[in-house]
Amino acid sequence: MLVLLVYLSGEGNGFLGRVEIEELGKAYHCPVRAKERLALVEDCGKDFVWRLAYAKLAGKIISEGNLGEIEVLMADPYFKEDHTGFAVNVWKLNTEVDSSELKKKFGDLISGKPNLSNPREIFDLFVKEKRIWITRRIWENDPKDFAGRHPQRKPVFHPTSLKPKIARWLINLSGLKPGQSLLDPFCGVGGILVEAGLLGIKSTGVELDKRWAEGARRNLEYYGIENARIINGDFFKWENGQYDAIVTDLPYGRSSKMRGEMLNFYGQAFEKFAEHSNKAVIMGPMDLEATLKRCGWNVKRKLSLPVHKSLKRWVHICLR
User: Fold this and answer.
1) HSE-CB for 76 with a 13 A CA cutoff
2) Domain 3-140 is of which CATH architecture?
3) Is 201 within 8 Å of 180 (Cβ atoms)?
4) 131-140 and 55-66: which strand pairing?
5) pLDDT higher than threshold 70 for residue 255
6) Residue 288 pLDDT > 70, yes or no?
């Protein structure tokens, strides 16, 4: 059985990436073993690694073992095949190793000439302590992809819009698959809906403010999203639809004096959520576990997401 190795992004020493790949693994019934910035996933993981937000790359494990036995590891007939046009990278995880020497040794043991400028295939060598994993890359996260959908680059900008990487992460925490349905009851200009649409997820967004509802439509159209709809109206008066999950970034007030009012507002929202789904991924400005529990939600997982030095958001993965 083939196994994939996924190299996670460095935020929180891989914490955000570990949570994300673990939740997707459960949804796809694909075993995941994640520690620090490395995740081992059975080959079924190729069905979802491409959608990860907090991961750098993924590859199929060709060989693994003791770093001092690389000659034995590369005695596999696979490495005797012609790999002309290859390139090799070394990734060191809390390990002191001479990358240049390791690359040279790999090049001496593999059949074929390298091509560093335009490689046909890329081998990634992951070294942790005295262990090495040799992988053949199958996917790489392109930072330009998310950068092209930064809130300020969209046709309609709102200052509270989520960055696309965070929006994608929240959706992945829900475990939704292509063809399933998502509801964002406070969609703003549609940041979550855009990412959902790109993943093949059918989405509905509700937005009270007519300006932002129209902005969401324009943003969806700009990115060619056709499997989404925008409802301009009051979510609390809206009665239509059942969804596989709710994914939302709650509206919030900046003044601490508004805390009591906002908790009351959130409580009403959480009760209303239950009319539309039995699963929700909710991001808010504070720990809302107690309020969610009072409204009948079971908080399966609670996470804090640093926004900058003095600000963080709380994320709650909930079931009914």
Assistant:
1) 13
2) 2-Layer Sandwich (3.30)
3) yes
4) antiparallel
5) no
6) yes
Q: How many residues does the chain have?
A: 320
> Can you tell me which residue has the tokens 């005797």?
80
What residue segments make up the domains of the chain, in order of their start?
3-140, 144-319
Q: What pTM does this model have?
A: 0.95
What is the average pLDDT across 240-267?
Answer: 84
Q: Tell me: the pLDDT tens digits for 192-236? A: 999 999 999 999 999 999 999 999 999 999 999 999 999 999 999
CATH architecture of 144-319: 3-Layer(aba) Sandwich (3.40)
